[in-house]
Amino acid sequence: MFSNFDFDVIQRSWLYLFTTGMKFTLTLTLVAMVGGILFGTVLAMMRLSHNKAISLIATSYVNLIRSVPLVLVIFWFYFLVPYIGAWIIGAAQPVQVGAFSSALITFILFEAAYYCEIMRSGIQSIPRGQVSAGYALGMNYWQMMGNVVLPQAFRNMIPILLTQTIVLFQDVSLVYVLGSVPDFVTVASKIAQRDGRLVEMYMFVAVVYFVMSFGLSTLVKKLQQRVAIIR
Known about the structure:
Pfam families: BPD_transp_1. This protein is an all-alpha fold.
């Protein structure tokens, strides 16, 4: 079955695949994760705000983003961000943002909607008695959130946050549609087309994603058991 396959293409290109393609994919994943968690935390606090207008804005944003396919959001921001940048600085021509910056903005804004819901669940898991105790000690809302609620919520949500990050790692492969960013799938695709070895290369890409995602999922599961023991 595999007699006509030439898996030497993987041996010839693995260094370039990992030092360029996988390096870009992991960089975009990690930076988008940090930005998504920070923005998602702000959105979660807005959703839980007693101010109905602020809560409505955050709720509308989360529902909108979660209702749109990610690939459409990638296209949308890739073409729209240059015009938004020009509008902000008052330039006559669209600003050259670059594919990486556009993809990064897209993933931060998109993933923040999912991180928001995780954080909201984590915040709501903290007993109301601790919140009341914080107010009783004279803390204001932000002091109570920063010193009492958020530290515990982050600890409780770490396994789920990391699971969502694994999903983000897989979603980054969708930047392939832009064709101008050197992510792992795009680099593998260019090598495959150059050498005429599409099946071998895409099989290798699938194996790499499976090994990394399964390995990370196993680590998250062990971490989840450890957090459960600490509780």
